[in-house]
Amino acid sequence: IHFASPTLRVAVGGREAFVEGLVGHLGEQGVGLFVPAIDMDVFSPLAQASTAGMERLGRWLRELDLRGQASNLRFVVFRRQESWIHGYTADLSGVAMKGYKGAPELIDGAATVWGSGAHLLADVGVAHSFDMHFPEVFAEGWTLGGATGRLEALIRNGDFALRGEDIRTSVDGAEIQGSFALAQPKARYDKRLTLQLSGGPIEVPVAKQFIPYKLSAGLVNWLNDAPKGGLINGLDFAYQGQIHVRRGEPARRVALNATVQNARARFHEDWPEISGLDGTVHVSGAQVKVAADAGTSLGVDLTGSVVRVRDNGDRVEADLRASSDGARMLGFV
């Protein structure tokens, strides 16, 4: 049986929406529906109402507050042996959602989604600039110059998981690749977020957008204040940690490797600035190591020097390899 409805009223749990241009077919094994377009602002409340008895799923839908437009929406329900199975696919545009418990905040995204039950896959394909923010990790969001990648979400037995793979985008002209994984089981202290980014070349001021604010205040301040400028040719960044942390528990970890070129830095407020710095930067937990392949300060060549920042920025140590004439060396000291 084939059928069509110019306007269909759908009501769930006291909420209603009107669907335009619905067509479908009904057979012995199931039903299939096609909708040319639907506004997610209207559909989202219906989805929330349909989760009665599924408290965590309903709360996620409310807090994410999904908005945007869905087109080419297809929905099928069919019988396989003794079970009923349903699946769906749609093209999403103008997608906006609020950040919630590790999930990113998104403005004006786009993707093709498909799935079955509580298992969803999405191919991200955004050709225009859009905004994205991980509020659980970074103080500010990023304006991305388009993006591609794959997202996968799964809800099972009240647990939620979200994964992003092979995400490729640009930030202020710098090419960035990355992935992330969010695990949200019922146990409060088992909720975790993992984030990996790599890219370059990228200017030092742009790279500071990727400093997690949940590190110790001393280390965050040092990472923001010490590097003054320059170019990062290669950047590898990783963050792993719990969403919720017991007091005193070392439950978050950050690592960063970067190759810098023609950089400027002041490693301690009482030290002179280093310029023309070429070398490597390694951040692991509360420790930072900078190895200079080239660099000068007050006319003194510091090639081969190593600076270590310890205890979340509270202590700075230097293994200096300095060469210059006597007057400049005396001034430097």
Structure in words:
The chain is mainly beta and 333 residues long. Helix content is 12%, strand content 61%. The protein has five helices and 19 strands. The protein has a 19-stranded antiparallel beta sheet that branches. A hairpin with a 2-residue loop joins strand 6 and strand 7 (119-133). Helix 1 runs antiparallel to helix 2 (55-64). The longest helix is centred in the N-terminal third of the chain and has 10 residues, at 40-49. It is elongated and about 85 Å long.
Largest beta-sheet details: 19 strands, antiparallel
N-to-C SSE string, H for helix and E for strand: EEEHHEEEEEEEEEHHEEEEEEEH
Can you give the helix content as a percent range? 10-25%
Give the structural class: mainly beta
- Residue stretches low in confidence (pLDDT < 50, at least 5 long) are 325-333
Shape: elongated
Distance between the termini: 90 Å
User: How many beta-strand elements?
Assistant: 19
The average pLDDT is 82
| Strand residues, percent | over 45%
Radius of gyration: 26 Å
Number of helices: 5
